[in-house]
Task: inverse folding
């Protein structure tokens, strides 16, 4: 597992993370793109007229609602909540696979490279027409991994609906 | 011979956008495409687009395609499908194929929006069934909903390779490797990030040495590269049933060449492209170009170039006053400039400037008829 | 022939279709979706060899998927050299692996 903690204008510091849900914008290349800026109802994200500028997060305005996550074409925005209980953290990320993980299930959580970090619990799975097929998955994990965990080991497709020719 | 005011060859993002723009100005537009479905590559692009609101950012490609088709319908643009254009004479006579034989029409103005062809690589076994272009795999999964294979090795880490790899995962395939000859990932880091989080291994400074199998691909041999030269003894074999090649695209300039447009080599834009001016007009004053034929970029830029060519063609046909056309074109250029900025876009912006310079040079030399 | 390779569940695509007809591939019935390319129906059934080359008899399959490369040519309803990746399925179509340049066949 890599313990690389990103830095940049979209990354909240440790103090802010400790105070409650906040976005973590892991967008580090000058891509011409700014839907995150418009997505934020609180005006917490600024890209500016030069749309290749990196998004800047005003961590005081951001309340970690995660709407930006569903609009980012790069799926590069996450939210981190370190205020959800002693020693715990919740990490949310966009998820565009089937099947979706099941709420309440134990699941292997991975880092940005897909390496195993820790076991966690699927806290929430959000879907909405407005997200246009990008679901938001939230896992609850040990707090020390809040800046490491960014994904899960995808649950295998269930064969229940498929016809087994040998059956 | 049937006469049309504006003929657009290619019903992809560039051609449809051009048609919409010109038809809105009042031009009688016919779009012709060899495919049975319109939309070009847009309906294969199921990911959300980059850009800003004016570029439909955050919207999935196929939804943008549906919007373009609806607009063409509302404007009464004629779209002829299943008709390959075989040739265009410099005077605007267009020859195309149909089920009832070869047909002809005469076009006052023409916009070529023919797109680009995928490049491929030659290696031992590269003709085995199971080796295909990334575009073929993308067509199969996203248009026809069929997996070309279950275990895929992707060759090339530009945005096409990264996006198609992600879409293969979404369709239920496994991507066993993304192989890149260069020392760094070619496309956007955020696209690569999606694959890395899903556990897809990247092999940088590697290439495919051979595809193995008797009648179909069963395994792939990779080799490490030192400055693009194979290092003996570093071969590794990966079990896979499919190899996809995403090794760039080349503009499809045959028709431009046939109707007398000057071509110029542009490394930043994928090869030979028709020389064109700021309005997308070629050295044949009745022929405009838009989209990948004018340099390989992406659907967002193709749509803007289409609008530019459509506006310019409508202006030249007398449907938009010069002052109004200038205003619209400037607006479009503003949006294009946004898309051609930053570490990925600057090279394309520079290449476009050089092409316009070539156009000016040719014009000064009196070569424009 | 391998297993069914149709995508039946997908996070984004909304219009997944189920086979509503069949074609005959080298005499065997294969499920197909009306209007999809013949090559897609074959691929879904795990068929990836469309023809054998004229001189050396090497197998060829889908390569470009959009009608450019000619690798996926087969004999369709008695006509050789048909690009299966751009030929839509019709019910009961007869599709045969093409050997070399193939032979014209009178199916009637």
Result:
């Amino acid at each position: 597992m890599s313990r690389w903690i990103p830095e940049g204008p979209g990354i909240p510091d440790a103090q802010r993370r400790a105070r409650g849900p906040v976005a973590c914008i892991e967008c580090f290349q000058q891509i011409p793109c700014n839907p995150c800026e418009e997505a934020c109802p609180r005006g917490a994200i600024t890209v500016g007229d030069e749309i290749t500028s990196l998004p800047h997060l005003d961590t005081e305005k951001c309340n970690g609602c995660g709407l930006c996550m569903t609009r980012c074409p790069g799926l590069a925005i996450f939210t981190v909540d370190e205020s959800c209980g002693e020693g715990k953290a919740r990490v949310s990320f966009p998820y565009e696979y089937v099947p979706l993980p099941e709420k309440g299930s134990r699941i292997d959580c991975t880092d940005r490279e897909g390496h195993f970090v820790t076991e966690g619990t699927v806290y929430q799975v959000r879907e909405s027409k407005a997200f246009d097929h990008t679901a938001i998955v939230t896992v609850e994990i040990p707090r020390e991994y809040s800046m490491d965990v960014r994904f899960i080991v995808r649950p295998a497709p269930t064969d229940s609906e498929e016809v087994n020719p040998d059956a | 011979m049937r006469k049309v005011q504006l003929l657009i060859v290619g019903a992809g993002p560039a051609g449809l956008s051009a048609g919409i723009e010109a038809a809105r100005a009042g031009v009688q537009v016919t779009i012709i495409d060899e495919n049975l479905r319109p939309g070009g590559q847009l309906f294969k692009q199921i990911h959300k687009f980059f850009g800003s609101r004016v570029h439909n950012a955050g919207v999935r490609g196929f939804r943008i395609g549906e919007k373009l088709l609806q607009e063409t319908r509302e404007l009464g643009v004629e779209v002829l499908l299943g008709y390959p254009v075989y040739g265009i004479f410099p005077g605007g006579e267009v020859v195309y194929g149909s089920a009832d034989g070869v047909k002809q029409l005469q076009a006052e103005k023409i916009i070529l929006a023919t797109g680009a062809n995928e490049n491929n690589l030659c290696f031992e076994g590269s003709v085995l069934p199971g080796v295909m272009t990334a575009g073929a795999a993308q067509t199969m999964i996203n248009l026809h909903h069929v997996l070309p294979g279950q275990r895929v090795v992707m060759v090339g880490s530009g945005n096409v390779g990264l996006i198609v790899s992600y879409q293969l995962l979404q369709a239920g395939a496994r991507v066993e490797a993304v192989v890149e000859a260069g020392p760094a990932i070619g496309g956007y880091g955020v696209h690569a990030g999606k694959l890395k989080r899903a556990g897809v291994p990247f092999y940088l400074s590697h290439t495919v040495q051979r595809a193995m199998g008797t009648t179909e691909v069963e395994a792939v041999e990779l080799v490490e590269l030192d400055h693009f030269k194979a290092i003996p003894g570093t071969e590794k074999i990966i079990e896979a049933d499919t190899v996809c090649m995403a090794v760039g695209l080349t503009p499809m300039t045959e028709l431009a060449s046939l109707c007398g447009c000057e071509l110029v080599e542009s490394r930043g834009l994928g090869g030979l492209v028709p020389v064109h001016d700021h309005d997308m007009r070629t050295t044949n004053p009745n022929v405009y170009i838009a989209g990948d034929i004018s340099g390989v970029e992406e659907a967002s830029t193709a749509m803007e170039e289409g609008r530019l060519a459509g506006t310019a063609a409508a202006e030249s046909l007398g449907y938009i006053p010069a002052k109004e056309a200038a205003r619209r074109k400037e607006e479009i250029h503003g949006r294009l400039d946004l898309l051609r900025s930053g570490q990925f876009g600057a090279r394309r912006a520079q290449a476009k400037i050089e092409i316009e310079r070539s156009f000016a040079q040719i014009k000064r030399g009196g070569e424009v008829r | 022939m391998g297993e069914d390779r149709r995508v039946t569940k997908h996070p984004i695509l909304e219009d997944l279709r189920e086979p509503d007809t069949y074609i005959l591939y080298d005499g065997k019935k294969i499920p197909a979706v009306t209007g999809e390319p013949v090559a897609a129906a074959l691929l879904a059934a795990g068929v990836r060899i469309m023809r054998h080359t004229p001189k050396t008899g090497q197998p060829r399959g889908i390569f470009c998927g959009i009608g450019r490369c000619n690798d996926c040519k087969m004999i369709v309803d008695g006509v050789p050299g048909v690009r299966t990746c751009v030929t839509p399925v019709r019910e009961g179509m007869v599709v045969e692996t093409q050997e070399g340049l193939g032979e014209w066949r009178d199916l009637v």
